[in-house]
Amino acid sequence: MGLDNAAIVPVDEPTASSGPPLPIVMPASTGQGLQISAQLTRRVGQVFYSMLFENNTQVVVDGFMIQFNKNTFGLATAGPLQIVPLQPGTSASTMLPIVVLQNMPAGPPSSLLQAAVKNNQQPVWVLQR
Fold it and tell me: What is the 3-state secondary structure (H, E, C) of 10-30?
């Protein structure tokens, strides 16, 4: 899910929309035409999950929701995922605020980060990185 060291942008280094593309965490071939790219970023001390949704389906896709599974980093969403309804052939991006040390599992640490993403037209998709 874009959780390698290169995916976290330091506070001093602002993110730019003209930078490299976000890593694809769910290709359109897996997501029945919906492609999701994402990575963790940090701006002014706040952690965000920067996400890009691309609708390559023939229908409007709406009602997006996300939930992180328990993870070593304790990452959890600080609010709901806000994505406008995606018309066929369009895309939308968002910066989802993240809180840390909220959703930690018992047991040994792991670098795996999983999130479940749902919308009104498709099944639940598990993003993993």
Answer: CCCCCCCCCCCCCCEEECCCC
